[in-house]
Amino acid sequence: MKKVYLFKYGLTVLFLICAFSSAFAQKSVFKGKVVDELNQPLPGATIHVKETDQSTVTDANGVFSLVGNNQSVLTVQVTFIGYDVANLVIKANETAAIKLVPNSKSLTEVVVVGYGTVKKTDLTGSVANLGAKDLNPGSVTNPLQQIAGKAAGVNINEVGSEPGVAPSIRIRGITSLSGGNDPLVVVDGVQGNMEFLNQVPPSEIASIDILKDASATAIYGSRGATGVIIITTKKGAAGKATVEYNENTSLDVIPKQLQELTASQWTKQAELQGVDVSANHGSNTDWYNLLTRNGVTQNHTLAFGSGSNGFNYRASVSAINQTGVVLGSNYKKYIARIVATQKALDDKLTLTMNVNTGVNDANYSPIGVGNAAFTSNTISQAYIARPTDPVYNTDGTYFTDPNVFHYTNPYAIAKTVSNVVNQDELFGSLRADLDIYKGLSAGWFGSWRKVNQNTGYYAPVASTITDAVTYNGQAHINNDHTDEKLMDINLSYKRDFGLSHIDATAVYEYQIQTYFGSYSAARGFANDIATYNGLQLGTLASAQNGDVSSYKNDRKLVSYLGRVNYSYNNRYYLTASFRADGSSVFGANHHFGYFPSASAAWRIDQESFMANQKVFSMLKLRGGYGVTGNQQGLPVQGSISLYGLSTNNPTTYFGGQQISLYDYIQNANPDLRWESRSETNLGLDFGLFNDRLTGTVEAYTSKTTNLLYNYNVNISGPFKVNHIFANAGTLQNKGLEASLSYAVIKTKDVSLTLAGNGSLMQNKVLKLSGVIDGIQQSTNYQPWGTNAWLVEGQPIGTYLIYKHTGVNSNGVETFAGQNADGSFDATAQSKIRYNAGQSLPKYNYAFTPSFTYKNFDASMVWRGAGGNKVFNGLRSKLSMLENLGKQNLLQSAIATGIHSSAVQSDEWLESGNYLRFQNLSLGYRINVTNIKFISALRVSLTGQNLALITKYKGLDPEVDASGGSSSGGDYGIYPRTRTFSAGLNVILK
Amino acid sequence: MKKLLIFSVFIVGLAAQSCTKVNETVYDKYPAAAFAATPKGADNALAIVVAKITGTWGSNYAGRDNCWYDLNSFSSDEQVIPHRNTGDWQLDFAQLYTRTAPTSLGITNNTWNWLYGAIYSANDAVAQLTAAKADPSKIAEAKVMRDWFYYLLIDDFGDVPFYTDNNTDPNTIQQTKRADIYNFIVTELKANVDLLSETKGGVYYGRFNKWAGYMVLAKVYLNAEVYTGTPHWAEALAAATKVASGGFTLHPATANTASPNGNTYYELFGNTCPDDETILAEYITENIISGNIYTIRSLNSANGTALIGFNGWNGTVIPSEYYDKFDDKDIRKKQFLVGPQAGNITYTKDISSLIDPGAGPNEGIRNTKFLTVAPNDASGGSNDFPIYRYADVLLMQAECNVRLGNSAAAEPFLKQIRTRAGLGDIANPTLDDIYNERGFELNMEGHRRQDMIRFGKYLLPHGFVSAGAEYMKLFPIPAAVLTVNPKLKQNPGYPTN
């Protein structure tokens, strides 16, 4: 008891002494204003006083003030994320003007590396780090568009510009055939799949960190092999309240069209080719123009927040509204979020709550329509439709030609089919961090994410779609629910021992993801009033197998992980991590996987022998090795033998009645497990001439073993079903990456920085066979695209193709190696095929210069890829004269004179090289010092996809490069737009 | 402070202990072990085999396209789908017809895969039913179906991999001689047919009863010379006679406006195959249990709309030289459409081209033997398919008698068929008479290729088709199968790659 009293009174006495001492001491006031490179105030910058260990932050006007203890000068360190640290001496009773210079490497100081952060200078692995200022501006609907071209080895592949459809991303190429290549997405600590990005408002991103090599991603164990994207959203800053509004509106246009036969050209050719006159309906219709229009994309974000006394918050509402360039497609997205942080227990406990809710409403252009075997999206039907076909019959109904098998009128589809997807997303998380004792801290983190998606589809008779006509309209709905929970508990310890620094973390993590939903379909409606909203109005007699279905499954993941960072004298760095993952989707024989990693770095510039040289301002060598896994592609319940409704004959007739028939739908594979990827990375970071020239060069080599593949097996022995997901095969990836930035001009008013990055990557299939259930299986020479294959010793998607030689007198295409009677060896291993290259790009590069002059700023992104071939399937399909009677063809088809072909020859194989003028952005900060309520105002103009330099004959050589079996093929896409946008950013006082 | 630390570690440890179970939970399917071992599972195993027969697109005996029926029909002289000069129709069918199909043809691959899938199911059913000590008739039914599938395999492909135990690795076994498989089929059939039910129709509609079992035995004996070099006409006759003892009669053929094509004869190809004549049928309900496309595939668009309510596919035509053999009095000629038709179109009798540039849109004779019955839609109708019927038995009895040198004994069998068709009797019929009569009676029912081979007609030139080489009597083994199992040998005459 005594002690307590002593403590209590002691504190009071101490407080009084302090109060008196400050009252009696001579006060000196230090004031200052911190501004950015454009002389705009920087609220929230930290001022640290070396002499007294005091700290404060700037207010909304960038102003701070400190009370000194009778000093006349103070040495202060000013820090702000994204800017170089400023060390300076300030004088009492003067207002210091402190201008911070943006970090010359365009990198934030702190890098999020998963379950923790490290200083950029202390990194040992390969991590690309992008701050808000580095992200692509303009009309952006998905965070991936913001990083296109910005990081070496991180390739964003956008096929078409359909509203609501996300681009794909590949980090260091393709590491898996069937196991999935999408990276893990981590948003403010919550792990998710790519669709999670949908929930992140692009303008609310503070930084994006991309973990590239295995030594960095191994901490994510069985989800780390494909790389990790870590997004940190903006948080409330200390100081006064801020209110910020961002707006961007764009006009989206179609830059290029295919040159097809006009009505008169078609008529002339039809006569020449002997097409029956009944096929010519004498009209003149430009189907493509009819189905397309100019699109508009709007983007609004209102954000506000403040912070004081251990509490801060940020709230925002974002709205994205997009009208697609194809009739009937549009997209609306709204996201609201609040992040709040409260400190307690003498600032030892930090609680952070994050709530985010989003709504996505999309109308997609229907797919799965039309009679073309090679493509089923609506816009591609416009390529096929004959220009001589009218849009309407004389009675005003949509035209169809009953003499063409399953004829569909693309305009009727675009005008009458509903294809609506509504998605609601909600996630919340709570983080509690507690400083326990001298560098030891503990944390708890829990998150819960829910996604509810409802799909509605209705095709009326007027759509001309065969099934809709047959059944008087058809409708279906899907309800899909995702429920993902994650909880982790961590302990971490940070301490300096002399020149040594140690930072260790141990984490236990539990995740459960549950998926459930249902599907219902109905046909035969009296009218089109209720569409998919009243399925009970359909006709019972028209019900079919599969009209009703539902599902539920879940995957659980239990993990134990740890990481130790050790450094000595800020010169030598060592990181080691280990993770054990147990997952319910692994087979019974492999419930747990283990993923170790180690990496090291040497900051050569810190060595004493470097002290006297002036060339290198920074030099760091890094190297690491790690083992990661990929379990993304493992199907839920994929390892056990299952019975379900028979796929081919869900209903059969047996014993005098119709019965439901059950059959094996999956083989057992207790050996099923994660793909295992081991990777070695070597990197060099450098800064020359006082960091005027900075850059990074990295090389890596990786091997994926236990490669997942859906093997076709003979139904025999243990195999009850003709395919089995199994781990056999090996894949190798090698790559070289470089990024460079050179500050050509760096003065008070003008800056010009030339920056760029590039990557070379090559994969090779080493092995494609293995023993499954005691039976040798081989997948060598598996088709992987049009005339592209998986072949041992060759890259993924190697074209083994026939050499086009011409056309014979009957209009049949000829090719090298045919027998005299025209017959030929059609097998994959046919000797008359030759190796014509690969379907995935060998190199990607980007050039990203930026320029500022006083209040004006400009930036560009040029990016390109190449070394690959694209199979122009669309050109092939629109060039066969034999099809003229039922469809339109390209103008170029006439000269080739090819009526028909037994093969897809190299006549249609084209170089995939391109250079795209991706982005040009011009901005101007309007001087607002005299405006009462506005503290900053910026206007900008951005153009995207402004030019495409390529020899490719189709619309755009940037086709699917996701690494899947459709990679490298062009069979018609939703058009890729060129956009022109105007933006406004205003910050209120 | 230390207490807090210890407490924290304790909490962490406790939480970590609580969630370490990672076993899979199945919510929406049946784990195989929990299903197959039950009596319901054993019955289901038998139903799976039966369901394989009707199958669906690309994996069936008949009804939908691109499998056994197409392979065995378009390679004969009875029907063809020409490429159209309007761009319609791929070339597979015309290539099969003209003996110019590539070695690797989807239809051939599908047929092979369908049959081996069915054999696996049958092996599985035999094993499961035996393990469950099921009624012997059910085990026999599974075995007889397996025999039937092997009979269809050796008929099309000759020497093929043979196994009856699903633990066999088919990738490592060699082909078994056609004659050896023939012997197995005969032996197993003889041991099992008498165990089968004698019930006709009802719960046995669509299933192998005793009469269907003897029908298969008769068919196997009938073609024994093709399979083994040694004919077994007497045994074929005996087996056919056994089928006839099941009490079948020919379905009456009388003019009736309510019947398809205006005659009760065509009820044989309607919604349900009548029990009087049908020995084995496929039960079909459009889109629920497969579907029957044979009429909609043939009719042109407008004619289809007029006759069956949906646009026809403008596909199958009957070669004019085949059509010309029919007598005008023959009620079976009513199945053909030529000249002006409903829907305001006219079918020409002849076609100008099969492949390049292809036939004109309305060229060629069409077929409505399976005149579509409801429920039907744009992808077919609900006509059941007669795999075997009594008319075939009569023709086999007639053929065996002629083959055995007893032409006079053949006459009454043939006479029944001809009388029903509205034709006169043929005294002392020849083999050609039998062959032609089979062509008239059984066209569009999947028998033609086998008949042409057995009667030595298969390789003769006809219409657009030039003479074939001996090796063409067998189809090539699919390339994919050869790749997987290097021990298999391609049938002679085809590129081995």
Give an overview of the whole structure:
The complex is a heterodimer of chains A (989) and B (497). Chain A has 989 residues and is mainly beta. Chain A contains ten helices and 55 strands. In chain A, 8% of the residues lie in helices and 49% in strands. Chain A has a 23-stranded antiparallel sheet that branches. Chain A has a five-stranded mixed sheet with strand order 10-15-16-13-14. In chain A, α6 packs antiparallel against α7. The longest helix of chain A has 23 residues, at 2-24. Chain B has 497 residues and is mainly alpha-helical. Chain B has 18 helices and nine strands. Chain B has a two-stranded antiparallel ribbon with strand order 2-3. In chain B, strands 4-9 form a two-stranded antiparallel sheet. A two-stranded antiparallel ribbon of chain B has the order 5-8. In chain B, α7 (136-157) runs antiparallel to α8 (178-192), α8 (178-192) packs antiparallel against α9 (210-222) and α11 packs antiparallel against α14. The mean pLDDT of chain B is 92. The interface between A and B is large, with 98 and 95 residues.
Largest interface: A-B, 98 and 95 residues
DSSP strand tally of chain B: 9
Structural class of the secondary structure composition of chain A?
A: mainly beta
Report mean pLDDT of chain B, rounded to a whole number.
92
Could you tell me the mean pLDDT of chain A? 88
- CATH class of one domain in chain A equals Mainly Beta
